[in-house]
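As promised in the previous annual report, we have extended the structural survey to additional targets. Below is the entry for Polysaccharide deacetylase family protein.
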Amino acid sequence: MTVTTRTTERTAPGRTSLRRRSRLRRLATSVLLSAGLCLGTLTAAGPAQAVDGTVVTSTQSGGRTVSFTFDDGPDPTHTPRLLEVLRRHGVKATFCLWGDHVRQYPHLVRQIAAEGHRLCNHTMSHQDMGGWSQQQIRQNLEQTNNLIRQAAPGAQITYFRAPYGNWGQSPQVAASLGMQPLGWRLAINDWQPPGTGELVRRIMQGVTPGAVVLMHDGGGDRSQTVSAVDQTIPQLRAQGYSFDQPAVR
Ligand SMILES: [Zn+2]
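The corresponding structure token record, generated without further manual editing, is:
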């Protein structure tokens, strides 16, 4: 699981075409509006929050901010440690969860939500959806969301992230379910732990204003990631960075 992640969770392909589709959709919406349909009719069957199918890779506020995102949990060992570190530093992050892990550790999902972090659907068991039909994707995403909602009733599931960054048709499906497709600008390749110092170096040298950073709290021994997060938060703040959540469009 973690090995295949290495080559594929680096880029977010399809951004340009998604932008184009998004523009087309906006155009179609304005045509419909000018045809006399009211906005209420258009949005009545959709999600409460307006979300488009663009894969976002930047923070909500931009400027000298950064968003930390953690994939493949919740993990019974490393997620609680990470939550403790984030709490101690007063940082809110985003957690991209597997449905199978949510089913195993629902109390951790409740804790993540209760501590003010954002939730992200990361499929049931890290399936590569690159070649899936919209119906197959929808079924998987809804199953995952149902488990998250059972674990943390009332919690908002703000984002969806495709395993391996292999988006296929998933951005449109995620958007139709009210979830913002969430990519990243910096991956520190922490799935093969290279030492805490090296992870710290990769974050500090790779970070850019407004970046969404991809890290992992599940799928293996994530002690080095947790330590690197603990060390980099004060270093980033010393450089004038503040912490933000990924954009929702
Ligand atoms: Zn993943």
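DSSP finds ten helices and eight strands in the chain. Residues 15-34 form the longest helix (20 residues). These points will be discussed at the next consortium meeting with the crystallography subgroup.
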